Amino acid sequence: MRFRSQKPLSRSIGKKALALCLFLFVLGLISSSVKAIPWSPEAALKAHLKENYPWADMEIDDLMISDKLPDEQPSNIVVEKGPPGKTVFTMEFSSGRKITATGSVKAFDWIVMSARAFRKGHNLQRDDVFPKLMDITRIPRGAIRSAEQMIGKPFTRSIVANVPLVDTMIAAVPVVKKGRKVTLVIESPSFIITALGEIKENSSVGSSVKAVNLASKKIISGLLLNENTVKVEF
């Protein structure tokens, strides 16, 4: 009986084992080279922008880092150029290293939009508008940022729905100061009653106001129709 030699089989197994070892070695090198750092450069840069710029929100796209980042976070961040648009950052580390980061920054802020169409002279109310977060490069000059500054004021012209409101659309309405004497008016389909009153708080035309009936000393609420007249709610 003859026995076959085991050398070819041993050589084949040896080659496969060697190839497997080389593969695992290379995989280990790759893994070590792409090891994730324990912090996010994008998050750190965005946090710096939010702390130092007045906008409500920001996004950083196409972020590029000039060198390998250390495990530690930067001790200081300097904005060399921008934002918005192309922005260049310098990240300074406690070791003395400085690494440059470049990205495209978009900034957003809140503005006030018209909820529907309005005619010229309409006194604006709270449900006539809504807030919207908009790219600051698209925000028009003079855009109104808060509805509080325009409630009760009339439009200087007719506008359509879903447009940014700007200060030139709203008429300047003088503030009626506390203590001003006014005529209190109570109306119904069958009668009109008037009385002398006094404003109890600063207010503007078109908004609600508290006043006191000087005859009865009763505090009432009403709508300030103009600088001299309050329409009483009942």
Structural write-up:
By secondary structure, the protein is α+β, with helices and mostly antiparallel strands. It folds into three domains: 41-106, no CATH class; 109-169, Type Iii Antifreeze Protein Isoform Hplc 12 (Alpha-Beta Complex), CATH 3.90.1210; 175-232, SH3 type barrels, CATH 2.30.30. It is 17% helix and 36% strand. The chain contains two helices and twelve strands, in the order ααββββββββββββ. It has helices at residues 7-33, 41-52, and strands at 57-65, 76-81, 85-92, 98-114, 129-135, 175-176, 181-187, 192-199, 203-204, 208-213, 219-226, 229-232. The strands form three sheets. Strands 1, 2, 3, 4 and 5 form a five-stranded antiparallel β-sheet that branches. It has a five-stranded mixed barrel with strand order 7-8-10-11-12. The model is unreliable at 29-34 (pLDDT under 50).
Features:
single chain, 234 residues, Type Iii Antifreeze Protein Isoform Hplc 12, 5-stranded antiparallel β-sheet, 5-stranded mixed beta barrel, 17% helix, 36% strand
